[in-house]
Each structure stands twice: as structure tokens, then as C-alpha cells.
């Protein structure tokens, strides 16, 4: 029987612990509302320690952290930046803010992230033209790290700095090292849909403390040392408020639990859906422990007879929020005419992932009942509804 009013199931809603309030209360009690303040300092230190870098700068969004990284590398008009194509537009918009040109790099079929093969090709061609990119922007989608060892090797070979957009991969480790700590700069996002949230916010991390000092200066209106307001360069207003940093500190304490919850959600989807024809879950790279920010899968329509649109329509009717995989940036009207390097000649992996991929509701507060609804919905579309006593929660009795 269908309940009369089913509540909406969201893709990845904020998940508060209640302990965030304590940090907010402290900030109110001491009137450290703004600007900056002790929560900001502590939040930066806590993140830097957690991911194993020398320093961190708390900012108002992941996008502003990316913008600062590009500013620090002096990226400007006439420069190019190699950027993953399969990503949210925020990875590349700051390249445009700087007046530079993005060149898009295809995905690797194993990781869904930047293809080392396509990157190599882009570098080889740019070396021939004697115009190397000023930076490479690699994105770690859905909590999966890119093949960082191969990508770093290529960047080092050409002496080009790497920026790691780890907005979706806080809590992931790659070869035992925190995702986001591999490049010259790494960025995290604490937007409402991310694994932990400050309602809105971001972090720039680096081992280069002098560069972070410069970022701190740029992020607070680039005010020169003087008693009056003096400015020699253009700055931004990008700092995170002390209140929001307090929320972040409360959230950071449970990051491990959040990763465990999302990994478990993945396991349950996997146990209950992987038998369906034509379904392939994004697999975890070797030597990687993903945060499984979102559970993502592809559907091979030829095998399953089911399209992603059919599934999305069914979800919509059942009040379940699910999403297609990011639309590749080289296919976006905004980036019309931008150069693109495919993984293989005549095999655009990112476009294929966009066409066949789906993200399932994966919030760490998703209940078993809600997840059952999602699973039921998928299985109905595949015309293989759950039979009695066949729904599996790993480590539990069948229900
Ligand atoms: C969320 C996200 C961003 C942007 O972060 P904001 O904090 O929303 O500005 C950048 N890149 C990727 C891959 C993201 O998912």
C-alpha cells in the first residue's frame, strides 16, 4: 500500500549533529560574530591536521577557494588551464573570472575522473605549440580520487602546478594520503549538500604557507599594512564567518561517522541492485578509501532496456530526488568552442557517463526505510520488484 503522503527523499541534505550549536553559543557569548575569530583559526588548524598539510584558509565557498588558488598562480588573460570536463561548473568558472581559457580533459573509465592518457595528449600538443598550461585543475568526483600518481607524474614532467578540487572528496584517502592534499593547492567545499557543511563555506589548503598568507591577504580585501585603508592590489571579500566556522568544527568531529554512513548506504544499494541487468556501480580505485559522497551507477540501456530518463521520471513520481551525472563542461553552452581532449579517439568517456549515469540519494541521514523506497523504485522500473524477504542490509537479518 502506498502511504498517502510520502515525505520527499533528498539527494544529499545537510546532516546536523546538534553539537554545532555549542560552537555557535560560544561565539555568541564572546561576541565573536565577525570578522574572523577563534572558530575560524581552530577550524583551519583542524582541517590542516586532518588532511596532513602545513596550512589552511577558511573561505566563504569552495568556488572562492578555487579562485584564490588561480590568483595565487597568477593565472590571467592569455593563459590556459587544463581542467577535468566531468564536473560541476564551479571547477571552471574561476578560470573565466581570471580571463583565462579552460581546456577540458576527458574522464578515465576506471575512476570517472581526469584521464591521465587524455592529459598526456593535451600536454604533448601544448608542448609542440610551445604554450604549456599555467595549471591543471583535477576534480575528485563523488568522493573518488583521480589517479593522482599518474597525473602528478605528468604535471611534474612538464613543471606545471596541480590544483585539486576536492570539494566532494573530503574524508577520502588515496594511497593512504588525504584526497585534496596532493597538489600545490587543494580545495574543499562545505556547501549544504557536501559530506559536512557549514551551510556555505570552503577551505584552501597547501603546504606553501607563504602562498596561504598571500591568500589570506587577498581574501580580506588586500589591505596593505597601514593605519588608514590603503590598497595596492585588487582583493576579494572571501573570508568565512566565525559563526559558520563553528558549525564546521561541530561537523568535522563526525566526519568519520559520515563517511562510514555513506559507505554503508553504498553497500546496501550494491547488495540490492547490482544483480539488475546493465547496472554498473562506480568502483573504488585500488588503494583508495572513498567517502562515497554519492552512490553513482551507470545503466547500459542495450542490456537493461531501461534509460536513465525512465528512472529519473520514476524517482520524480515517487518524490525521490536523484540526479544525472554532471553534464561535461565541454558540452555546456557556456564553454562552447573550448578545446577538449578525449580519453581515446572517438571515445568521449565523460559524455557517455553523462548519458548513462545516475546519482542516488546518499545523505548520511538516509534511513533504512527511505533507502528501501529508493531500491523498490529502481527495481520496479526494471520490472523486478523486491520479493518478500529479499531486501538485504549487510550484517543484518533479511527483512
Ligand atoms: C560543490 C562543488 C564546488 C563548489 O563549491 P561551493 O562551496 O558550492 O562553491 C566545486 N567543485 C565541485 C566538484 C563541487 O562539487
From TrEMBL:
InterPro entries: DegT/StrS_aminotransferase, PyrdxlP-dep_Trfase, PyrdxlP-dep_Trfase_major, PyrdxlP-dep_Trfase_small. SUPFAM superfamilies: PLP-dependent transferases. Gene3D superfamilies: Aspartate Aminotransferase, domain 1, Type I PLP-dependent aspartate aminotransferase-like (Major domain). The modification N6-(pyridoxal phosphate)lysine is found at residue 194. Pfam families: DegT_DnrJ_EryC1 (PF01041). GO terms for molecular function: pyridoxal phosphate binding; transaminase activity. CDD domains: AHBA_syn (cd00616). GO terms for biological process: polysaccharide biosynthetic process. Keywords: Aminotransferase, Pyridoxal phosphate, Transferase. Its cofactor is pyridoxal 5'-phosphate. The active site is at residue 194. Coiled coil: none annotated. Belongs to the DegT/DnrJ/EryC1 family. PANTHER family: DTDP-4-AMINO-4,6-DIDEOXYGALACTOSE TRANSAMINASE, TRANSAMINASE. This is Pyridoxal phosphate-dependent aminotransferase. It comes from Oceanobacillus arenosus.
Amino acid at each position: 500500500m502506498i502511504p498517502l503522503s510520502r515525505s520527499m527523499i533528498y539527494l544529499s541534505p545537510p546532516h546536523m549533529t546538534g553539537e554545532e550549536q555549542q560552537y555557535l553559543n560560544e561565539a555568541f557569548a564572546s561576541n565573536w560574530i565577525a570578522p574572523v575569530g577563534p572558530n575560524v583559526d581552530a577550524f583551519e588548524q583542524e582541517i590542516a591536521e586532518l588532511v596532513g598539510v602545513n596550512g589552511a584558509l577558511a573561505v566563504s565557498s569552495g568556488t572562492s577557494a578555487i579562485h584564490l588558488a588561480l590568483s595565487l598562480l597568477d593565472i590571467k588573460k592569455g593563459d590556459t588551464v587544463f581542467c577535468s570536463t566531468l564536473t560541476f561548473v564551479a571547477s571552471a568558472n574561476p578560470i573565466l573570472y581570471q580571463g583565462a581559457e579552460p581546456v577540458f580533459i576527458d574522464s578515465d573509465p576506471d575512476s570517472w575522473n581526469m584521464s591521465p592518457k587524455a592529459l598526456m595528449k593535451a600536454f604533448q600538443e601544448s608542448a609542440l605549440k610551445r604554450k604549456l598550461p599555467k595549471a591543471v585543475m583535477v576534480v575528485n568526483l563523488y568522493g573518488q580520487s583521480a589517479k593522482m600518481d599518474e597525473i602528478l607524474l605528468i604535471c611534474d614532467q612538464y613543471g606545471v602546478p596541480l590544483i585539486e578540487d576536492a570539494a566532494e572528496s573530503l574524508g577520502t584517502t588515496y594511497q593512504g594520503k588525504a584526497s585534496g592534499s596532493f597538489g600545490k593547492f587543494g580545495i574543499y567545499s562545505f556547501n549544504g549538500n557536501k559530506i559536512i557543511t557549514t551551510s556555505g563555506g570552503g577551505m584552501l589548503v597547501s603546504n606553501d604557507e607563504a602562498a596561504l598568507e598571500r591568500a589570506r591577504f587577498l581574501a580580506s580585501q588586500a589591505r596593505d599594512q597601514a593605519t588608514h585603508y590603503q590598497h595596492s592590489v585588487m582583493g576579494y571579500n572571501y573570508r568565512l564567518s566565525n559563526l559558520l566556522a563553528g558549525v564546521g568544527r561541530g561537523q568535522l568531529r563526525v566526519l568519520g561517522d559520515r563517511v562510514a554512513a555513506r559507505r554503508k548506504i553504498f553497500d546496501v544499494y550494491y547488495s540490492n541492485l547490482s544483480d539488475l541487468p546493465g547496472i554498473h556501480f562506480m568502483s573504488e580505485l585500488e588503494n583508495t578509501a572513498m567517502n562515497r559522497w554519492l552512490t553513482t551507477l551507470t545503466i547500459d540501456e542495450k542490456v537493461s532496456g531501461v534509460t536513465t530518463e525512465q528512472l529519473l521520471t520514476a524517482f520524480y513520481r515517487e518524490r525521490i530526488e536523484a540526479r544525472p551525472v554532471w553534464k561535461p563542461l565541454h558540452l555546456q553552452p557556456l564553454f562552447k568552442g573550448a578545446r577538449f581532449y578525449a580519453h581515446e579517439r572517438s571515445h568521449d568517456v565523460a559524455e557517455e557517463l553523462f548519458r548513462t549515469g545516475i546519482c542516488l540519494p546518499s545523505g548520511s541521514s538516509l534511513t533504512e526505510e527511505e533507502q528501501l523506497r529508493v531500491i523498490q523504485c529502481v527495481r520496479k522500473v526494471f520490472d523486478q520488484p523486491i520479493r518478500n524477504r529479499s531486501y538485504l542490509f549487510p550484517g543484518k537479518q533479511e527483512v
